[in-house]
Amino acid sequence: MPEPLKIAVVTPYYIPDEPMLRQCQQSVLEQTYPCTHIAVADGHPSPIFADAPRTMHVVLPQSNRDFGNTPRGIGAILAESWGFNAIAFLDDDNWYERDHLETMVATRRSTGAPLIACQRQFRHLDGSLLPTTEAAEDRMLHVDTNCWLIFRPAFGLLRGWFLPKMAACIGDRIFFQRAVRERYKIAATKKRTVNYRTKHPSHYANAAIKVPDGAYTQEQLKKTFAPVRTQAGMAEIVNAIGFFPRLT
Question: What is the largest distance, in Å, between two alpha-carbon atoms of the chain?
Answer without folding.
Answer: 54
